[in-house]
Every structure is written in structure tokens, then in C-alpha cells.
Design a protein that fits this description.
This protein is an alpha/beta fold. It has a single domain, classed as Alpha/Beta hydrolase fold, catalytic domain (Rossmann fold, 3-Layer(aba) Sandwich), CATH 3.40.50.1820. A hairpin with a 5-residue loop joins β2 and β3. α2 packs across α3, α3 crosses α11 and α4 packs across α5. The model has no long low-confidence stretch (mean pLDDT 95).
Length: 331
């Protein structure tokens, strides 16, 4: 497994704080920039039905720039993080840059993300990768794309890596980029519980609101009671995981989507893990728990925070051009 040392994100001094990078990943100037871009995307909003009857929504945008004909045979699929959506700032800004460079982009929403709680009765959990892969397959077939370039941020990066490992050949995935993916989710949860309080508050607030939206469409008195009685992430994980999944404990559940050992050994196309040493949420050292695979490249940067890599006060991210550089390499 190769580790890139010659490529380093170097933000200006005033943007080298890990919390500034992480918070600016989806708020402040970057959010404003994304909203401006979003107004000009003219995307088609879709509901994709999988063979299992699951409904997932997506935003699809075709580029009006013909840079080379081969590029139109490739579909870029972007996956957001936990409690994010196809309209998250990091997804939108990356999409916009890819479009400017001639790529067509599908921004896919996970179940119960992007205000889609009414579409499926069962609640989202991180083991539901089959439906995401099925949605990609359905869209790719219906729109005659030959190949897929897959990218994901945070939990979306974890999904992207597992899908590439399990269904890379089936989906014709030619390259995968994963930004700050949780590799050992149990370690990631422990780190977040010890990190700056704002992250715990952010995720607990968004998760609780998501569950409340779900209950509005599919009432469940026992789940409502659990939601009322459990306030912290640790409490909610301990209560909801046995109640809503097949797993008996948080530890068993986290293990089900970890990327350690040989989990990614079946990846057979170029893959890049982009991580930062100052990530306040994901333990970067977990990257060394992934066993050797000649197709996997590790980019470990000194700065960047969690999915930030913000390079100026306007909110532009180095990741936007990095996605273009890497995807262009593999078409």
C-alpha cells in the first residue's frame, strides 16, 4: 500500500486550526459558496427504485462542457457523510468543479437523508450498502454510462470503499476517492466523544431531528420512548442499535462496517484515501490497520481537519481540484 508523501495540502497560517477546517467544511463561507453554486446547477431531482423496492433520491447534473468524448462514458457518483445530503456544501462545491471540468455527476442520498424519511419504513444504518450499490447500478444502466468514478466523504467514503471492494467489477468502478472515512468506527466514536463538544452537539442534534422526522411518518411508541430517555451519542447508540438493527451492541454494529484487515482486499481499481493528521473526528492512525493492496494509495496530510482542506477565506477547498486531478488520471 503506497503512502503519498510528496503531495501535501498547505493552507495559509490562519486556516491551520483543525476546528476551523472542520467547521468550515460545511458552514460559513463554504456554505454560502455552495448555495450560490447550487442555484446554477440546474440538476434533475430523481427517485431511484432498487430491485429490492428501496427508494433513494439523487440529484443528477450533466456537464455542458465537452472536453473529450471519452469523459462522457464516465459517471461520477458522490456520497455524503452521516446526516449530510446531496446538498451538503462539500458535495455541492466538489460537484460544481467536476462539472466545469466536463464530468457528469450523480449526488446520491442515503436512506433517511436529504428529507427522504417518508420513502422507506425501515431506518437507515451504516450496513445498508446493498441498496446504495443497487441504486448506482440502476441509474448507470438506465442512462447508458459505461464506467463509474466513485467518491465519498466521511461515512460516504466508508460506503464508497466497501462498494468498490464488493461490487467494483459489477459496477465498472474505475477509481474511488474516500475523504476522511471512518476505518474503525468504534475508535471514531470514542474519539468524537472525547473531542471538541461542538461535534457531539452537532451529530446528536441532527440524529435526533432525523429520528423525529422518521417517527412523524412511521410512528413507533417504543422508539419514541427511547428517544425521550437517551440524550448522548453513547446512550443513543446503546439504546437504538439493538432496537433498530440486527446487532446486539454498538461494538458489534461498528465492527460490521469497519475497513480493517482484508476488508478492502478485493479492490481492483485505483483508490485514494485522503486523510489529515489533525482530523478531530476520525483517528488517522487507523489507516495502518488496512492490509496491503497495491491499488490503494494513502494520502495523509498534516492539515485539513475533517473533510475540510479549506484553502482560502472564500471557502474554496483543495479537494475540489484534487478530485478532478485524480479522476482525470483514470479515464
Amino acid at each position: 500500500m503506497r503512502i503519498s508523501e510528496n503531495i501535501q495540502f498547505k493552507p495559509p497560517f490562519m486556516l491551520r486550526n483543525r476546528h476551523i477546517q472542520s467547521i468550515m467544511a460545511s458552514t460559513g463561507p463554504r456554505r454560502a459558496l455552495a448555495d450560490k453554486m447550487l442555484a446554477n446547477l440546474h440538476s434533475e431531482q430523481l427517485t431511484i427504485k432498487t430491485k429490492a423496492g428501496v427508494a433513494l433520491t439523487a440529484d443528477f447534473t450533466t456537464s455542458n462542457r465537452i472536453i473529450d468524448r471519452n469523459r462522457k462514458n464516465f459517471l461520477v457518483v458522490l456520497l455524503h457523510g452521516w446526516e449530510g445530503s446531496s446538498k451538503s456544501a462539500y458535495i455541492v462545491t466538489t460537484t460544481y468543479t467536476l462539472l466545469v471540468n466536463g464530468f457528469d455527476v450523480l449526488r446520491l442520498n442515503f436512506r433517511d437523508h436529504g428529507d427522504t424519511h417518508q420513502l422507506n419504513k425501515d431506518i437507515f444504518n451504516s450496513t445498508r450498502i446493498d441498496e446504495v450499490g443497487d441504486a448506482i447500478k440502476t441509474f448507470k444502466f438506465q442512462n447508458n454510462y459505461e464506467n463509474v468514478l466513485l467518491g465519498g466523504f466521511s461515512l460516504g467514503g466508508n460506503f464508497a470503499l466497501r462498494i468498490s471492494a464488493d461490487r467494483g467489477e459489477e459496477l465498472s468502478i474505475k477509481a474511488t476517492l474516500a475523504v476522511c472515512p471512518p476505518i474503525d468506527p468504534n475508535n471514531a466514536m470514542k474519539k468524537m466523544n472525547k473531542s471538541f463538544f461542538i461535534y457531539h452537539y452537532y451529530f446528536i442534534t441532527k440524529w435526533r431531528k432525523s429520528l423525529q422526522k422518521k417517527l412523524a411518518f412511521f410512528p413507533n411508541p417504543s422508539i419514541e420512548k427511547l428517544l425521550k430517555n437517551n440524550k448522548t451519542l453513547s446512550e443513543m447508540n446503546a439504546a437504538f442499535i439493538p432496537a433498530l438493527t440486527e446487532y446486539k451492541s454498538p461494538e458489534e454494529y461498528f465492527k460490521s462496517y469497519e475497513l480493517i484487515g482484508d476488508r478492502l482486499c478485493n479492490i481492483k481499481s485505483p483508490t485514494h484515501l485522503i486523510m489529515s493528521l489533525d482530523d478531530p473526528i476520525i483517528p488517522t492512525e487507523d489507516i495502518h490497520q488496512i492490509n496491503e493492496n497495491p491499488f490503494i494509495n494513502r494520502e495523509v496530510h498534516h492539515f485539513g481537519g475533517h473533510c475540510g482542506f479549506i484553502e482560502n477565506i472564500s471557502g474554496e477547498s483543495w479537494l475540489q481540484t484534487r478530485f478532478v486531478e485524480l479522476f482525470e488520471r483514470y479515464i
